[in-house]
Amino acid sequence: MASTAVMDVQAADYIKCTGTSGKTIYTNMPFMCAGAAIKAQEATKAALAAQAAKEAAAKEAAAKAAAAAAAAKAAAEKEAATKAAAAAVKANALVTDAVFSPDSFWYTPIPNDVELHPYSAQFAQEVVRQKKAYYGTVTINTTKYSSPVYVADANTPTVRVNQWDCQKKGYKDSGLLTQWASVPVPSYAVPAEGTDMEMTVYQPSTDTVWEFWKAKKENGVWYACWGGRLENASKSNGVFYKYYGTTATSLPFLGGQITAEELQRGEIKHAIGIALVDTEHWNIISWPANRSDGWNGNKVPYRIAEGQRFRLDPTVDVDSLKLSKAGKIIAKAAQTYGFVVWDKAGSVSLRAQNVYSYTKLGKTNPYPALFENKANYAVMEGFPWDRLQFLPMDYGKPETTSK
């Protein structure tokens, strides 16, 4: 039998409380009390909540770490792409060297021993005549009547470019509306100055070129009167389909304009577009032109057809000419790749990529330095226009290609 002292100690261990059944009980096991059970449940809930919060925090931290890793990877890829682009430039590769198919006429050198047009000499004199008759110079357009080229990245938001009937035809071209339904126009883009208001958008990620003539932005909405879209540019011959495109011939600005980067490099690796004043009648064209705005209603002889190609005699020693540095770069390209007649103008003229291509990116106008502070019309002074050689009509046209 337990002693009285032991029984007193054991009795002291017991407490009176309301049990989990709701009845009053005496117990030395506190967890049997309702209050203690509630506290235990609350403690368990708190522990579970703390564990859930800990797991959520760990998950959030993991997500942030993954996002940071992805951002770091994207930054590394961007840096690598920038370095690759810089390396490409260093290796003399520029965007304008290869927008279209490698076998496009734009990039195909003319053989030294190529057959010439039977009226080559007469055509050369016609160019000389036009130069003398219209201001006595051959200018290079850099602000008006040349197209800015805006290169859009893959993330540039797209907009619809609407057609406005500037020529009062009384209708809109459904094909053009489709081509302009989704265009990645950069927010800083503006068209060229002058009445033609040209603009080009090139997106390498989608391999697409868009052109606009008489482009404008009103109340945040883009409009243009004419132009086109050239898809799969890198696999194309470098000509807009049928009657689309901004030049009179459907030849894109991106193919034949001179760029500041090319002049900085010291080499142009493509044929150069040239505009004449008097051209052969519109129904007589030469490949690669798809159309013409020429007029020769009186059938004046030796008028040059739009689309016709010619070059500077490759035996001319360009380095010995009294010609500007930029003029010599152009002359050497004219010997290798030649000129192609892509438009009419008020004077014989070439186009350089519009200055807005650079200034709208915060860069300075590159042309004064590249032109040695000469006026645009003086850069080509000393070019031997009488030494031009004209190629046969449709020169280089693939047998399977139709006009």
Please report the number of helical segments. 9
What coarse outline follows from CA principal-axis ratios? elongated
Which structural class best describes the helix and strand composition? alpha/beta
Task: Write the element-wise H/E pattern from the N-terminal end onward.
Answer: HEEHHEEEHEEEEEHHEEHEEHHE
Largest sheet: 6 strands, mixed
Chain-averaged pLDDT: 90
Approximately how much helix is present in the residues?
Answer: 25-40%
Proportion of strand residues? 15-25%
How far do the termini sit from each other?
123 Å
Rg of Cα set: 37 Å
How many strand elements? 15
Oligomer: single chain
Strand order within the widest beta sheet: 3-14-11-13-12-15
Could you walk me through the main structural features you see in this protein, from its secondary elements to its overall organization?
By secondary structure, the protein is α/β, with parallel strands linked by helices. Helix content is 29%, strand content 15%. It contains nine helices and 15 strands. It has helices at residues 4-13, 34-90, 120-133, 174-179, 253-256, 260-265, 325-336, 356-359, 367-370, and strands at residues 15-18, 24-27, 139-141, 149-151, 161-163, 199-203, 208-213, 216-218, 221-224, 226-230, 272-276, 309-312, 339-344, 349-351, 388-390. The strands form four sheets. It has a six-stranded mixed beta sheet. It is elongated, with a radius of gyration of 37 Å. The relative contact order is 0.14.
